[in-house]
From TrEMBL:
Name this protein carries in UniProt: Cysteine dioxygenase
Record keywords, A-Z: Dioxygenase, Iron, Metal-binding, Oxidoreductase
Region (Disordered): 1-22
GO MF: ferrous iron binding; oxidoreductase activity, acting on single donors with incorporation of molecular oxygen, incorporation of two atoms of oxygen
Top-level taxon in the UniProt lineage: Bacteria
UniProt organism field: Streptomyces capoamus
InterPro entries associated with the record: CDO_1, RmlC-like_jellyroll, RmlC_Cupin_sf
Pfam families associated with the record: CDO_I
Amino acid sequence: MSVPSPSLPASASASPAAGSAPTQADLLDFVRRTAADAELIASLPLDPEGRTWVRLKGPGGSEAWLIGWPPGTGTGWHDHADSVGAFLTASGDLTEHSLAARLPSDGWKTLELTEGVDRVRRLSAGQGRAFGRHHVHEVLNESRDRHAISVHAYYPPLPQIRRYSRTGQVLRLEQVERPEDWQ
């Protein structure tokens, strides 16, 4: 991974009602409007070897990121713990593999998944999605020759990210990261 760049302000910030937490819809609206900021998207430094990112000012105290994805890169399986979120592809194409099942939030290391829980979404420029708490997924740039750029927002700001490995229908908790690990 590349070293994070300094924060850049998003030119279009969503405004949830004063004193209220941003909803999934607010976050999706924010990532959609931010991804439409061509100057901001073009300002992200791209690295052919690893993902790059810039922290953005999200709506209502949310955590937001602009992320560059070289060809063939991905996140690996993970969740965002108790945060809700949204992301949108600003340029290129991303693929999201997710689980259509609510997993126990704590107290397990290995879990056998039932058949039929896998979902795949292909998200081209301008396409995105919102998701709830404990959403387990991986995001990939499957292109062989083109970078992708996306905008992400989470509320509350990420308390942790749980990383998983997957072999067939077996999902294993491998690591828990805290904000100091990625900021």
